[in-house]
Amino acid sequence: MPTLTPLALAALALLDESDMHPYEMYQLMLARHDDRLVKVRPGSLYHTIDRLARDELAQPTGSDRAGNRPERTTYRITEAGRAALRERLTSMLAEPAEEYPEFPLALSEAPHVPRDEFLRLLEQRRARLADRLAGYDRAAAGLAERYIPERYWIDLDYQRAMLGAELTWTRGLLDRVRDGRLPWEPPASDGSR
To answer: Among 36, 44, 142, 143, whose Cα sits 20 to 30 Å from the Cα of 160?
Structure first.
């Protein structure tokens, strides 16, 4: 079975909801703010749908034209596509993936940044995390007000929890460096830490 990229997984999930054309999928992904979860551009989405069709995970169901707009092909998920979607989701939900975000790497090399600059940068990060968390909180409140069942936005709840934890941890690190509990000295000139 072909490996599903994050964009292919998102596209198959949309097709599992309803038959649609790629432009409609793109608009729906933006409306749902799925672009915070997966990198999506119209060209890459069309390419992904073509690959899903070649791999027989999706199939065209017809095309239409509205006014002077280009012809649009509508696709549906196949049974093989539905099986691939379920298999990949099962794996992603059950098994923690080894991901390589930049922030832990930056932290591991942070002793190369002078203390005052480190504090300034970390404070900048703390402010941005707080802003992002406030935005996610507003989005969650808006979804709840529209009576959208939480099971459709548990990813947002997860991201809020992760941001909250990172924000709490960052505040604690700032406090520890500021009050000297975590001494911050320049790296030794002989290369030892």
So the answer is: 44
